[in-house]
């Protein structure tokens, strides 16, 4: 993101005029490598890749997301890091999702198993 704003100001001093130019610019320090969209995988057997999606940051397990009109519930969020030049940098964000219906059935079956 780059934002530039320029303004010209005329200053009259006696019979001569001077023109001053002011410029303010802002730029984001984020680089393309710092932006990592989520790799989304539906984990019901067999696992199926739903592609790479731009989703809101800070997603958590149990939240609901809609992809191509289908509702999914997040089962796991995985952040992968690589060591580069002595620093760990984020290299991948992955979401493991289940269809919402399948997620609810799994919760029901887990509760039945705990009760027995």
What's the helix and strand layout?
Elements: E1 2-13, E2 16-27, E3 38-42, E4 48-53, E5 64-67, E6 70-84, E7 87-99, H1 100-115
Descriptive report:
The chain has 116 residues and is mainly β. It has one domain (2-115). It is built from 1 helix and 7 strands, in the order βββββββα. The protein has a 5-stranded mixed sheet. The longest helix is centred in the last third of the chain and has 16 residues, at 100-115. Residues 1-11 have low confidence and may be disordered.
Please name the defining characteristics of this protein.
116 residues, mainly beta, five-stranded mixed beta sheet, two-stranded antiparallel sheet
Short description:
The protein is mainly beta. It is built from one helix and seven strands.
- Measured by DSSP, the beta-strand proportion falls in over 45%
* CA distance, first residue to last residue: 57 Å
Extended strand count: 7
Secondary structure tally, helices:
1
Average pLDDT score: 79
Structural class: mainly beta
Radius of gyration: 26 Å
Question: What is the N-to-C succession of helices and strands?
Answer: EEEEEEEH
Ranges where pLDDT stays below 50 over 5 or more residues in a row are 1-11
The strand line-up of the biggest sheet is 4-3-7-6-5
Structurally, how many domains make up the residues? Answer: 1
Estimate the helix proportion, in percent.
Answer: 10-25%
Shape: globular
Oligomer: single chain
